[in-house]
Design goal:
By secondary structure, this protein is α/β, with parallel strands linked by helices. It has one domain (5-212): TIM Barrel (Alpha-Beta Barrel). It is 39% helix and 15% strand. It contains eight helices and eight strands; from the N terminus they run E-H-E-H-E-H-E-H-E-H-E-H-E-E-H-H. It has helices at residues 24-34, 48-65, 75-80, 95-102, 115-124, 148-157, 188-191, 196-212; strands at residues 10-13, 38-41, 69-72, 85-88, 107-111, 128-131, 162-165, 183-186. It has an eight-stranded parallel beta barrel with strand order 1-2-3-4-5-6-7-8, surrounded by six helices. The longest helix is centred in the N-terminal third of the chain and has 18 residues, at 48-65. The model has no long low-confidence stretch (mean pLDDT 95).
C-alpha cells in the first residue's frame, strides 16, 4: 500500500470559489497548519498551464508540512509535478493505465459508490477509496446520496482505507461513527471558513475522536 491509513484522517480538497481575495497557497498553508493530513487540488475551471504552475507552488507547501499532495483527475499534471498521487472518478482514466504512467510508488485513489466499484478498485490496485455523497454539497449538488449503511458495507468489503465525502461538516459527521471509515474528505468545511486554521484543528480533533471511539 502506498498510503498510510493515518494520512486519510482529514482529507482537504481545494476550491477557489471561497478564496475571497486570498491566494490558494495562503488558504492551503492555513489548512495544513490546522492539521489537514492529505491534500487534493481540484480545479475544474483553469487552464492546464495555470493548473501546472499552481500545483508546483502547492507541492512546495505540502512538502514543508510532510503532507501528501493528490491531483484530482489529471494524471499528466500529477506526473509533471511529481505529486504524491492522483484521485480518479469512475469516468476518468483506468487505474491500471494511471499506474503505468505514475509508477508503483504513487498513490491512486478512486471514487467508489457501490460495493462492486470498491472491490474492483481494490483488485486493480487502488490505494484508497472516496465514498459519498453522504450529504449534498455546494461543489456537487447533483451527486447521488450514499446512505451510512451503504458506506459501512463498502468499508467492510475492502481492506484499503475509505474516506467519506459529501457535504460533511463539524456539525454533521457524528452519523459516521462506527462506519469503518479511515477519515473524511471536506471542501467547504475548511476552505469556506473565515478562520481556516482554527476550524481545521477542531474538525480534525472531532474526526479523530469519532474514528477512535
Amino acid at each position: 500500500m502506498n498510503v498510510k491509513k493515518e494520512d486519510m484522517l482529514l482529507y482537504g480538497i481545494t476550491d477557489r470559489s471561497w478564496l475571497n481575495g486570498r491566494t490558494l497557497s495562503e488558504v492551503v498553508k492555513e489548512s495544513l497548519e490546522g492539521g489537514v493530513t492529505i491534500l487534493q487540488i481540484r480545479e475544474k475551471d483553469i487552464d492546464e498551464k495555470n493548473f501546472l504552475e499552481e500545483a508546483k507552488e502547492i507541492k512546495k507547501i505540502c512538502e514543508k508540512f510532510n503532507v501528501p499532495l493528490i491531483i484530482n483527475d489529471n494524471v499528466e499534471i500529477a506526473k509533471m509535478v511529481d505529486a504524491d498521487g492522483v484521485h480518479l472518478g469512475q469516468d476518468d482514466m483506468d487505474i491500471e493505465e494511471a499506474r503505468k504512467i505514475l509508477g508503483p510508488e504513487k498513490i491512486i485513489g478512486i471514487t467508489a459508490k457501490t460495493i462492486e466499484q470498491a472491490k474492483e478498485a481494490q483488485m486493480k490496485g487502488a490505494d484508497y477509496l472516496g465514498s459519498g455523497a453522504i450529504y449534498t454539497s455546494g461543489t456537487k449538488q447533483n451527486a447521488k446520496r450514499l446512505t451510512v449503511e451503504d458506506l459501512k458495507a463498502i468499508c467492510a468489503s475492502v481492506e484499503i482505507p475509505v474516506v467519506a465525502i459529501g457535504g460533511l461538516t463539524y456539525d454533521n459527521i457524528d452519523v459516521l461513527k462506527d462506519s469503518g471509515i479511515s477519515g473524511i474528505a471536506v471542501v467547504s468545511a475548511i476552505y469556506a471558513s473565515t478562520d481556516i486554521k482554527t476550524d481545521t484543528i477542531k474538525l480534525k480533533e472531532k474526526t479523530r475522536n469519532l474514528i477512535d471511539a
